[in-house]
Amino acid sequence: MKLENEAALDNLIICYQCYTLHEEVPIKDGSKACCSECGGILYRYDTKLVDHGLALSITGLIFFVLANSFSLIQMDILGTKQFITIPKTILSLFENGFYLVGFLVGFLIFIFPLMIFLINILLFTLLKFKRGEKTTKELLILLAHIKPWSMADIFFISLLVALVKLVAFGQIHIGIAFWTLMVFVMY
Amino acid sequence: MIEIDEDKLILCPICAAVNIDKGKKNVCRRCASPIYHHRSFSTEKSWAFLITAMVAYIPANLYPMLVTSAFGTKDESTILGGVVMLWEHGSYPVAAIIFFASIVIPVMKFLILLYLLISVKYPIGKDKKVDKHKLYTMTEVIGPWSMIDVFVVAILAALIHLVNIEVLAGTAATAFAISVFFTLLAAHAFDETLIKENK
């Protein structure tokens, strides 16, 4: 294989799933290129990516704040009402002495998702005004490191499982945050 | 004009840029992240994390995951005990989810990672037509889902706090969280380029 110089490597792309080498070809606006071997998505082309991304990440952040400030589930057991929020769940782990689990859960469902949204907003703003190329690069690298550790979606499924378990105990009211979390997870 | 072998092209794990393999130490030309390619200790880090995870998985199954104290009586249930209880109560889907998330997925991940780590070092299963890249991607995707049980216990423990009825997390919650955390680390530490080399 012959190449002009090292920058010509940018025209090549390796599939992240099966490590097949591909050559980048121009595609239509709004479409995506898939690997011919395994069907994994290689890259997309979208001229409005920055605007869409910015809008979606701000919406996501709003829903994240809402999901954290309202109650997730409210329960009536034996005449007493109890409710939880996401921060309360994490804090109660600390109160019961499960510092390690509390620490881990706090990072996985609170700090990392929040960081991803903040980084995304910063990134798209920088890209929109075409400024701070070095910061953009550093933010992208940071994002790649954090992304696999955000588990808000898994937390949502756990919430569903917990709900089914709780049905036997007493009356359950699903809070506002439950719906906002659902919306937030979809972003 | 430079001429390179197609096998010499490697992928940056962080920014997905294509790089030329220059031997022992590679640095990505776009994002400057190191691309690990140690010939001397390529799998040791991943081995260490995997063994830690497997050790932590033992107490996670032996100690109680959930302690329910209702009206003076204490009821402790392990992960497997909880699954059996749910099954007997008739909540089959939830029992199945918990069973998959806390038993099938971790064990499968251990086995797949063990297989991958052994097969890149010793010529086992080279003749077999197993897609190791697919196996690896699968472990990365399904891995975090085993956290479900820890989250469920956290939710239950936070929600049910009464004078008479109380749900507390057990010792196994910590062990299980550690186990999942280290399997995730082991999977991330695994050098994917080794699979290609040993094909």
Short overview:
The complex is a heterodimer of chains A (187) and B (199). Chain A has 187 residues and is of the alpha+beta class.
Task: Report on the architecture of this protein.
Chain A is α+β, with helices and mostly antiparallel strands. Chain A folds into 2 domains: 6-44, no CATH class; 49-186, no CATH class. Chain A has 6 helices and 8 strands. Chain A has helices at 49-69, 86-95, 99-128, 133-146, 152-166, 176-186; strands at residues 2-3, 12-14, 21-23, 32-34, 41-44, 73-77, 80-84, 171-174. In chain A, the strands form 3 sheets. Chain A has a 3-stranded antiparallel sheet. In chain A, strand 6 and strand 7 form a beta hairpin. Chain B has helices at residues 44-62, 79-89, 92-121, 132-142, 148-159, 171-189, 193-197, and strands spanning 2-3, 9-11, 18-20, 26-27, 34-35, 66-70, 73-77, 165-169. In chain B, the strands form 3 sheets. In chain B, strands 7-6-8 form a 3-stranded antiparallel sheet. In chain B, strand 6 (66-70) and strand 7 (73-77) form a beta hairpin. In chain B, helix 2 (79-89) runs antiparallel to helix 3 (92-121) and helix 3 (92-121) crosses helix 6. The longest helix of chain B has 30 residues, at 92-121. The mean pLDDT of chain B is 76. Chains A and B meet through strand 1, strand 2, strand 6, strand 7 and helix 2 of A and strand 1, strand 2, strand 3, helix 3 and helix 4 of B.
Shape of chain B: elongated
**What is the string of helix and strand elements of chain A?**
EEEEEHEEHHHHEH
Derived from helix and strand composition plus strand pairing, the structural class of chain A reads alpha+beta
Main beta-sheet annotation of chain A: 3 strands, antiparallel
Overall pLDDT level of chain B: 76
Q: Which structural class fits the helix and strand makeup of chain B? A: alpha+beta
- Please report the total strand number of chain B as a whole number: 8
What count of structural domains of chain B?
2
H/I helix tally of chain A: 6
| Main β-sheet description of chain B | 3 strands, antiparallel
Task: Note poorly predicted spans of chain B.
Answer: none
Architecture (CATH level 2) name of the largest domain in chain B:
Up-down Bundle
